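Closing statement on the tryptophan sub-project.
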Amino acid sequence: MSNAAPAGRAHWSSRWAFILVTAGSAIGLGNIWKFPYMTGTNGGSAFVLVYLACIIGIGVPLLMAETLLGRRGQENPADTMRIVAAEARASQWWQIVGYIGILGALFILSFYSVVAGWILDYTFLAMKGFAGASKESLAQTFSQLLADPVKLIAWHTAFMAINVAVVAGGVTAGIERANKIMMPALLAIVLVLIGYGFVAADMGAAFRFMFHFDFSAISSKVILSAMGHSFFTLSLGMGAIMTYGSYLGRDTSIARTCLYISVADTGIALLAGLAIFAIVFAQGLEPAAGPGLILQTLPLAFSQMPGGGVIGVLFFLLVVFAAWTSSISLIEPATAWLIERFGLRRSRAVWIVCLTTWLLGIAVALSFNDWSEVRFFGLNIFDFLDTLTTKIMMPLAGLLIALFTGWVMKRAHVEDEIGLGGGAFHLWFNVLRFLSPLAIVVIFLNVIGVIG
Ligand code: TRP
């Protein structure tokens, strides 16, 4: 089962398996739910432009670096950092990167699962069909869902349960198999929605909204949101990629695989955005509607397109699936840590991780209704956890990963892992050493207001 990997530890069955599961981690609610609504609330093209710049200048180089660290360390994120730091004769404090990831992944999962629960709810609504749906009725359906703590918690519980089932089954057996059919199927459905956008909605307006670049709309808030999202969508900085990299065999080119994954991830997000905004503009909806955006737009299209009944069910089902392959990667870092550091059985480790996040997720579900007044720094629990992870923990961990790989690790080891030669290596390495960390720091400072 392993390709030239050290004995004793599970490994992916092939390079393609790694691409598939890592793409499965990257492609999820971030692409289909979050990217469109963030684009909508952050002024459209301004956000898209900065997001693309962040993917290229920060995201892709870091995806390679995080994978590289994982494969070098061959352990959970904390122990991987301990091992690679020892190898570089650097401080054991670098383990902190691993702990930020392990903890952050659990925070993300707690709200990710609640949102995945919304999609589960809409999968069942789609089975009944959206016949006769209107802008108003869909807005109401969504706010009724948010107002119903029992329903939110029930769906969140259901989503966590299917996660326990897969992750308890182990990395290769559980995670790989699930990905192979569903990811291409999701792409197919998104393409159908794009087709619908061209024929029956306003694709022209969607293009203008997303790609007619207006530099004056770029603000510090837009830049921080876009940078945060570039981390979120590529699953960066939270130990997920590091853990997946640790199951990667030695003979795989990390650079090339990471490039494929980034292209797939960005492509799906842009396509989903176009499909959704085509409907938004054709129907006179509000692009800045927020987290409910896809749930308030797509059902309109499903209610009108031929075969929309079936397509709607399939779509939501595939989004649940995409969310599932992502959430698995959020559970794995803490699970691997419990197994490897404390010698727990996998099934027990998974239970501990999932029960903890389940409890936190209940607080998230309540933050939309009974606990909406509970605030941290003025944010409700849902917004607080999202902001803390996406805008603070991920960029911080990313910064540390760039600095560690670029400046602390022995260069020969980096070269040995990354699988890039000559000019390409220098380009990547210099971007990672200078551009990525500098960009993260400047964006941070800018937001804090130190330099503007
Ligand atoms: N990238 C996933 C998405 O876009 C979410 C995700 C999975 C994630 N694993 C992660 C985000 C690790 C941050 C860190 O839906």
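The longest helix spans residues 308-342. With this model delivered, the sub-project is considered complete and its resources will be redirected to Aim 3.
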